[in-house]
Amino acid sequence: MDLSKAVRIDEDNPSIKRVKERCINCGRCKTICKDVVGINYDEKCKEAVCINCGQCILNCPVGALVPKYDYKKVLDYLHDTEKIVTISIAPAVRTSIGEGFGLDAGTFLEKELVGALKEVGFDYVFDVTFGADMTVMEEAHELVNRLKNNKTLPMFTSCCPSWVKYLEIYHPDKLNHLSTVKSPIGIQSSIINTYFLKMMDIPKDKIINVVVAPCTAKKFEIRRTEMGMDICLTTSELVLLLKESGIDITKVEPKEFDSLLSKGSGAGLIFGRSGGVMESILRCVNYIITGEDKITGFLSLEENEKSGTIKKTTVNIGPYKLRVVSVQGMKNIEEVLKDLDNYDFIEVMNCPLGCVSGGGQVLNAINKMDEINKKRALSLEEDDKNNSIRFCYKNPDVIDIYKTYLDYPNSPKALKLIHTNFKDRSSILREKSL
């Protein structure tokens, strides 16, 4: 079968699968990978150079590329009476899941989603925005420490797994610029496997942790040994799981997230769109330095007119004039990497508008994607504006976990449990052995 124009997908890719009989060898997937995402490679590499983002899935006109499905495993665990199954929901999922049931893009379904998952049989349903709030707390303090000590600036965000893997492959010499804080999903699983299990007196071998994310790259991320999440489902997989279980999300009884790791702040919710991590961390940095609550307004800034994917400004916080930039796409980060001395803090997301357009989201017509992604992003922004808690440090669950378990942000215990490290993956670029 001729796949000469198709992007290369290895069999052991944890995120993406090619349905070969559907492929028409049109070359669109390779064009997206090279010219839009920004992956530069040739066929001589010993492995397929893939950052697992799934943009090829969203742009395949015939459905020949799909997420690697794991939802059948989850259904098996739900039928295993010996297992306790938790599920955590990433922010952007709640603005897309409704599309799989005929609702408009951007329809915000939070309590309905919790109700549906309870009806399917999950024992505990948690909100990843709690993990996002924890990420903000840790990362904001890390940034302040770097600023005070003038240490390894600029600091890069590290919550986008495609971006982290890209840096590991193409720029391993810059890995020390990455924040060492785990992603929200990584923190969520670490807290579940320690704090939550201890509080609930649950043996570790009894628990199965599932996360639902808009992102196919999270399937790769959870394979990192320190992450502790068992299975990652995409939004589109969750639609299949619910439908095969006879659940219509529009007809379930709405329910609240389970306590201990319950609903996060508005700051955690806007992690699901580009610029949201920047805004959330700047809110927290401002409080650490000045003791004041402030919405910085970063999300309302216009993107660079030329690319539409770079947003930069200077933010005055106490004695600091922070030069910050938010970047979408690996092609655009290459431009920023040439001028690192001009920045103090850099947010990077691989996908257009961030997680709302992740490769695991519900599929839509290719020519409608920009419009749909904007609706999803706006939905998250609106919920942040209407949220009674808009700052991570005011989340009572976050306050409690530091008081009773982690001591304080960047404490020795926090550094051990919810921080991580990265590895040089540049060997992927080496040629195949003859």
Automatic annotation (TrEMBL):
Gene Ontology molecular function, alphabetical: iron-sulfur cluster binding; metal ion binding
Keyword Metal-binding annotated: yes
InterPro entries assigned: 4Fe4S_Fe-S-bd, 4Fe4S_Fe_S_CS, Cytosolic_Fe-S_CAF, Fe_hydrogenase, Fe_hydrogenase_lsu_C, Fe_hydrogenase_ssu, Fe_hydrogenase_ssu_sf
Keyword field contains Iron: yes
Occurrences of domain 4Fe-4S ferredoxin-type (ranges): 14-33, 41-70
PROSITE patterns: 4FE4S_FER_1 (PS00198), 4FE4S_FER_2 (PS51379)
One matching Pfam family: Fer4_4
Keywords, alphabetical: Iron, Iron-sulfur, Metal-binding
Designated name of the protein: Iron hydrogenase small subunit
Gene source species: Candidatus Onthousia faecipullorum
